[in-house]
Every structure is written in C-alpha cells, then in structure tokens.
Amino acid sequence: MPQLTIDLPEAAMPWLTRQAENENTTPERFLISHVLCSMARDESELIYADPAQKHLEDILEERLKGPFIEITDLDALKERVMAKALARVHQRSCHA
Q1: What's the Cα-to-Cα distance from 42 to each of 36, 39, 48, rounded to whole Å?
Q2: Any residues with CB less than 8 A from the CB of 29 and at least 6 apart, and which?
Q3: Prior bond of 2 cis (ω within 30°)
Q4: d(C-alpha 73, C-alpha 10), whole Å
Q5: What's the CA gap between 78 and 59, in Å, rounded?
Q6: Cα–Cα distances in Å, from 14 out to 29, 42, 50, 60, 65?
Q7: Main-chain dihedrals φ then ψ at residue 89, nearest 5 degrees
Q8: How high is the mean pLDDT in each 10-residue block of the chain (96 residues)?
Q9: For the stretch 68-83, what's the b/e string if a residue is b when 16 or more beta carbons lie within 10 angstroms of its beta carbon?
C-alpha cells in the first residue's frame, strides 16, 4: 500500500483525534476512511453525468416522499392501469 506523509497544523490534531475516537479508530485510519468515502461519493456523482438521468432520479426521490393515496378498490385500480396500458399499446401500433 502506498504511504503518504502529511504535515497537519498542530491545531488540527485535537479535532482529528476526537473524530478518530468517535469512530473508534486511529487518526490515520480515520483519514483513510474519509478519503475512501470521498472517492466513493465522487464516483457516484459521475454516474449521474447525464442530466436527464439525474433529473429522473430527483423526480423519483421526490415522489418517494409522498403524499400517498390509500387504495380502497384494488380491482378498479388494476382495470384502470390495464386500460391505460392497452390504450398506449394501441396508440403505438396505429402510429407504427
């Protein structure tokens, strides 16, 4: 594993030590973990380099917040969904 020497200001050491203690680790391991988490976060942002994909993800996250409706008649819901799906299929087959 490559090694890196970092000269931190003395004032940073108490903070770094506290953070490491909170994670039950050493300051060195805490920094490694922090760097690896930052790398993973950067890589996940690259997945959404396509604005359309990011926009879709934002829409789905917003919808997950609700509000949700209570479905009282499952059979009626199935019928509505099937009717819309069949209309869509019919519409596409007429334009093809």
Answers
A1: 10, 5, 10
A2: 20, 23
A3: no
A4: 67
A5: 24
A6: 15, 28, 41, 42, 40
A7: -65, -45
A8: 86 92 91 88 68 85 88 92 92 76
A9: eeeeeeeeeeeeeeee
∠ Cα 62 66 79 (to 5°) = 110
Token readout for 85 is 């799906």
Unique residue bearing structure tokens 């604005």: 51
What pLDDT, on the 0 to 100 scale, is given for residue 91?
86
State both tokens at 69: 């409706």
Write out the two tokens for 86. 């069949």
